[in-house]
Amino acid sequence: MRKAICLLSGGLDSTVSLYVARSEGYSPIALSIEYGQRHFREISVARALTKKLVIPHYFAALSMPWKGSALLDAKIKLPTGRDEKTMSCEIPVTYVPGRNSVFLSMAMSCAETEKAEAIFIGANILDYSGYPDCRPEYLKAVAEAMWSGTKAGVEGRKVEIKAPLIKFTKKDIVLLGQELGVPFEMTWSCYAGDDKPCGTCDSCILRAKGFREAGIPDSLLIA
Questions:
Q1: CA torsion through residues 52, 53, 59, 63, sign
Q2: Around Cβ 127, how many Cβ atoms within 10 Å?
Q3: What is the DSSP annotation of 200-214?
Q4: What is the CATH number of the domain that holds 49?
Q5: Quick one: pLDDT at residue 129?
Q6: Quick check: pTM over 0.85?
Q7: Is the distance from CB of 8 to CB of 18 less than 8 angstroms?
Q8: pLDDT at 132
């Protein structure tokens, strides 16, 4: 069976992306990365998800001591109560410089070693918080650079970078997740990482929008 490395944060998008990989006939290998984020709620969620699915799960750790993001520096206040228009036209303080480039490089290294055919990432350009490294042109450029700089690519075994949710709204993602049987109550989206979702950060607002428009109760808030 074809292998796929699935970047898994434990959030809604990355979890649905993992389930898409399974639905497409891939044998998924999850990769979660600890990069000094302000909380590890998502990491524990990711661990529980892969245990439930009984799939291999790699954990990698790295340090970004220069910080530069509210997700890395607790001294930077998380934005709250922003409207969707502002989110779509302004890069927020939760943007982590170079994060997806680093994550995809690590995923490519894992893919080469595991002889995987694809990397799945839950990036999307609709209903997102304005991150420049979630755009299709960026992902295409990264894939081409990696093909030219890896043994697999040089030998003609190009590892494909797949972003199945790239043009999905949060509503679309929720509906697809429901269709694929994603256990929403096991996912975590809140930037704050407390016992319960804060409901006011960008990620909580977008998640709530998706479930509301899909007409589906968010089982995380019910559990």
A1: negative
A2: 21
A3: -BHHHHHHHHHHHHH
A4: 3.40.50.620
A5: 58
A6: yes
A7: yes
A8: 87
User: How many Å is the Cα radius of gyration of the chain?
Assistant: 17
CA distances from 68 to 11, 53, 80, 100 (A): 21, 35, 18, 15
User: Nearest to residue 56, comparing CAs of 95, 86, 27, 99?
Assistant: 27
Position 89 scores a pLDDT of 67
What local confidence, expressed as pLDDT, does residue 127 receive? 62
Choose among 78, 73, 40: nearest CA to 59: 40
DSSP 65: T
Report, as ranges of residue numbers, the positions in the chain whose pLDDT lies below 70: 84-89, 127-130, 223
Helices 170-180 and 12-23 pack at an angle, to 10 degrees, of 50
Q: Please tell me the predicted confidence (pLDDT) of residue 87.
A: 66
Write phi, then psi, for 62 (nearest 5 degrees). Answer: -145, 165
Range of the domain at 96: 3-222
List of residues 6+ apart from 215 with CB closer than 8 A: none
Coil vs helix vs strand at 157:
coil
Strands 118-120 and 3-7: parallel
Dist CA 10 CA 166 (whole Å): 18
Give the pair of three-digit tokens for residue 127: 């209903």
How many domains in the chain? 1
Query: According to the model, what pLDDT value does residue 97 have?
Result: 93
> For the chain, where are the alpha helices, taking DSSP H only?
12-23, 41-53, 84-89, 99-114, 136-148, 151-154, 170-180, 202-214, 219-222
Give pLDDT, residue 205: 92
What is the CB neighbour count within 10 angstroms for residue 92? 19
